[in-house]
Amino acid sequence: MDYVRRPVAFGLVFHDGKLACVRVDRGEGSYYDLPGGAVDGDETEEQALVREFVEETGMTVRPFARIAEAAQYFLKSTGEPLNNTGGFWIAEQVSLDPSAKVEADHELVWLHPHTALNELRHDAHAWAVATWLRR
């Protein structure tokens, strides 16, 4: 199987000891991801992260530290084979406007980081959380 390389950026935002995650429900069960996704066109990782956070959660963030880089093979729900390759960023929440969210199947949830380690769908996401916890 040929996995298409897809540049990505994902973020870790903490508030009151909890980590911002998205619960995604596409009708075949739900799963948890870190907010973020594909880098489009000429975007930087930071620009993609800011855009993805708004689209998925309605939250505006300011990325400030790239703490990890990872690549992970996976199949999208459509069956498309991808190799997500990119950075994991610590970011701070600037504002929250739920009406700005455009992805109806994504819900912002706050998880304790140790809970997130077990619940996150992608191993690369859990690894990024573990990297942060070990700092």
Structural features, described:
This protein has 3 helices and 8 strands, in the order βββββαβββαα. It is globular and about 40 Å long. With 135 residues, it is of the alpha+beta class. α2 runs antiparallel to α3 (123-133). The chain has a single domain (4-133), classed as Nucleoside Triphosphate Pyrophosphohydrolase, CATH 3.90.79. Strands 5-1-7-6 form a 4-stranded mixed β-sheet. Strands 2, 3, 4 and 8 form a 4-stranded antiparallel β-sheet that branches. The longest helix has 13 residues, at 45-57.
Secondary structure elements and pairings:
Layout: E1 4-12, E2 14-15, E3 18-25, E4 30-33, E5 36-38, H1 45-57, E6 59-75, E7 81-96, E8 106-111, H2 113-119, H3 123-133
Helix pairs in contact: 2-3
Could you list some keywords that capture this structure?
single chain, 23% helix, alpha+beta, 3 helices, 135 residues, 4-stranded antiparallel β-sheet
Strand order of the largest sheet: 5-1-7-6
CATH-assigned homologous superfamily: Nucleoside Triphosphate Pyrophosphohydrolase
Count of the separate structural domains? 1
Number of helical regions: 3
Any idea what the CATH architecture is? Alpha-Beta Complex
Q: What is the residue-mean pLDDT, rounded to a whole number?
A: 97
Secondary structure category: alpha+beta
Distance between the termini: 36 Å
Write down the secondary-structure element order. Answer: EEEEEHEEEHH
Q: What would CATH call the class? A: Alpha Beta
Main sheet record: 4 strands, mixed
Helix percent reads 10-25%
Please report which band the strand proportion falls in: under 5%, 5-15%, 15-25%, 25-35%, 35-45% or over 45%: over 45%
Broad shape = globular
Instruction: Pick out the low-confidence regions.
Output: none
Could you name the CATH topology?
Nucleoside Triphosphate Pyrophosphohydrolase
What's the gyration radius in Å?
14 Å
Strand runs, count: 8
